[in-house]
Amino acid sequence: MPDFPIVDAHLHLWDPGHFRMSWLDGNAVLDKKHDLADYRAHTAGIDIAAMVYLQVEVEPAYGLLEARWVADLVLAEPRIKAIVAWAPCEFGEQSRAYLEALVAVSPLVKGVRRLIQGESVDFAAEPRFVRGVQILSEYGLSFDICIKHPQLRATFELVRQCPNARFILDHIGKPDIAAGLMDPWRDELRQLAAFPNVICKVSGMVTEADMARWTVDDLRPYFDHVFACFGEDRVAFGGDWPVAFQASTYRRWVETVDALTAGLTPAAKRKLWAENAARFYRID
Asked: What tens digit of pLDDT does each residue of 168-181 get?
């Protein structure tokens, strides 16, 4: 367990009774309220200094309302230091009106995530979407890349055309850990890491593994490859609560990452657990 305060770079909170979230339908673990009280209970005994809230894929009509809802939660939980909100990047130049309203919500809105994982393999490289991501830097916003591993190639093209954007790859690109597949994810992750404006979030791995039977050794080759590609200055810890709760308690995930990083220097551990996320999301 880290012996210093950490930054959780990937937190979700939701109330499906308040905002419509159709992707939760039928999921007995997730289709219920997961609020601050639950998060505090699940993370008891872990010294979390700051959290980054990630949009939870409410129906698009609620996108701006979600950002305002989270900004209000900060009054009850000041450790929420950054908000990554939904935005319709696929509208290109026409997304500006939304972005102007979004950044006016709160100075804590530091980035955008428009899920790619449920879209076509080439969605990330579509011209209007690329343009929508290009203009994020004009509003001081970063972009969280949430894809499945077959979408990595189109992601190269997105990043190549957005040299001024700041990207963070969620969930190490969602390789098929359950099947033990390393390729072509292994080579494509290395190619993505060649772009200096991309860092990688160590998160979401347990739900890509066999959720009932995963072990530390199942995750190790993927974890080690992420570090080999991105290096200690471009990796950040994320809890992915409560999605990850389908496969692991929060404490078990923290202990797993701690075991996987046992060989790192103290300085490298501080970068992974806190400093890199704080720098990327501009957390004081």
From this structure: 999 999 999 999 99
pLDDT digits (tens, 9 = 90+) for 60-81: 999 999 999 999 999 999 999 9
Class for domain 6-280, per CATH? alpha beta
pTM to 2 decimal places: 0.97
DSSP one-letter string for the chain? --SS-EEEEEE--B-TTTS--GGGTT-TTTSS-B-HHHHHHHTTTS-EEEEEEE-----GGGHHHHHHHHHHHTTT-TTEEEEEE---GGGGGGGHHHHHHHHTT-TTEEEE----TTS-TTGGG-HHHHHHHHGGGGGT-EEEE---GGGHHHHHHHHHT-TT--EEEGGGG---TTTT--TTHHHHHHHHHTSTTEEEEE-S-TTTS-TTT--HHHHHHHHHHHHHHH-GGGEEE---BTGGGGT--HHHHHHHHHHHTTTS-HHHHHIIIIIHHHHHTT--
